[in-house]
Design goal:
Rossmann fold; 6-stranded parallel sheet; elongated; alpha/beta; 396 residues
Length: 396
């Protein structure tokens, strides 16, 4: 994997097209969460130190090839400048209107951010001519946006065909972390997986069950498992037509000697705003819903994690947005955090709600690696080949 630290790449005076993911949450024009911005800073600093002309390409939202004022990257350019403590010039033009001279006039060791790449019609269609125009703006292309690498877009895949292309530092770190939990595993390895629908995670489970020692299922996914294996889950969120999927999971887990663990006790309420009550899984009434895991399940998870050398976490344990149902998620965070710090286990977490929980409880630095990649993270765990990664491996 050839990245920007390779010594044979000369960056001084070169125009570097740096694709990053700055698709951050915003409210009323203000950025509400900055972890994706902070993750790209090491690559930017490395390129600045090498006196490159850094041209940042990114997107926010889905403007479908049209200008949308609320999706401009200008506020994000200001935030990036603040975090870097350096100037970031902002170019409001779409790619077709940018003159090469504007890019050539950037000083060595400085930054220009281009406007939302998805304002251009050729971006999401991976248009050949648009990819060529984009490549003409730079001398070197660097992808540091793992979270976009499952998209065969012009600024992710197409541009690599026309310009020398390399991995950035963040994307390199992400790939190395994911390899350690999918192909270079230090066993025993355990997966804690949650979310509302087991049908959306079935490919991940089917891929990892062949390699993992334990798969702990929590959240709405656990409700579906419990219902289809004979437990009363009351009015809990679940999928009703997943009998075949559940049988598939249980059969393949037996074949590969992977233990499937579901909650043995839970926290229930009659509504999402209730106080919550601990109950064994055999005691749930028809008018109750499962909103968190209980203390016995937390103890079981702790025992499994303490016996593991590698842990992957994707999906909260319950409705952690309500403090009455956040204990399971918070305790899982604490257990993995302590194990990572004390015993140096390899711990990886990822997925939108998972990252939200990690940020809420201020545990971002407690894992070996936290992925903010979302869809790309999940597709990699499914065993899929990501277009952006494949393109770089072919064109470095």
């Amino acid at each position: 994997m050839k990245n920007i630290l390779n010594q044979d790449i000369i960056f001084k005076g070169k125009k570097v097209l740096l694709r990053v993911d700055l698709n951050v949450p915003m409210k009323n024009g203000s950025i509400t969460e900055t972890s994706r911005i902070k993750k790209i800073i090491p690559t930017i600093k490395e390129l600045l130190a090498k006196k490159a002309k850094v041209i940042i390409i990114s997107h926010i939202g889905r403007p479908k090839g049209k200008f949308v004022e609320a999706m401009s990257l200008e506020p994000i350019s200001r935030k990036l400048a603040s975090l870097l403590n350096t100037d970031v010039s902002f170019n409001k033009k779409i790619i077709n209107d940018i003159a090469i001279s504007e890019i050539n006039n950037i000083e060595n060791g400085s930054i220009m951010m281009l406007e939302n790449i998805r304002f251009n019609q050729g971006e999401e269609t991976n248009d050949i001519e648009f990819s060529k125009k984009l490549s003409n703006l730079g001398d070197i292309y660097v992808n540091d946006a793992f979270s976009c690498s499952h998209r065969a877009h012009a600024s992710v895949e197409g541009v690599t065909k026309y310009i020398p292309s390399y991995f950035g530092l963040q994307i390199t770190q992400e790939i190395h972390a994911l390899k350690k939990i999918t192909s270079e595993i230090k066993k025993p390895v355990s997966l804690i997986i949650g979310g509302s629908k087991i049908s959306t995670k079935i490919n991940i489970i089917n891929n990892l069950v062949k390699k993992f020692s334990n798969i702990i299922i929590v959240g709405g996914m656990a409700n579906t498992m419990l219902k289809h294996t004979g437990s009363n889950i009351g009015k809990s969120i679940c999928e009703n037509d997943c009998g075949t999927l559940i049988k598939q999971i249980l059969d393949i887990s037996k074949k590969f000697n992977c233990k499937i663990i579901c909650p043995i006790d839970v926290v229930v309420s009659k509504d999402f705003e209730g106080l919550g009550k601990n109950k064994d899984i055999t005691e749930i009434n028809d008018d109750e819903m499962i909103l968190d895991i209980g203390p016995k399940t937390i103890s079981l998870i702790k025992k499994i994690i303490n016996q593991s050398n590698t842990v992957l976490w994707n999906g909260p344990a319950g409705y952690f947005e309500n403090p009455n149902f956040q204990t399971g998620t918070k305790e899982i965070l604490e257990i993995i955090s302590q194990k990572s710090i004390k015993d140096k286990i390899f711990s990886v977490a990822g997925g939108g709600e998972t990252v939200a929980a990690i940020n809420k409880f201020k545990k971002f630095d407690s894992f070996t690696f936290v992925s903010t990649a979302g869809g790309a993270f999940l597709e990699y765990l499914e065993g899929k080949t990501l277009p952006g990664i494949k393109a770089l491996n072919q064109n470095v």
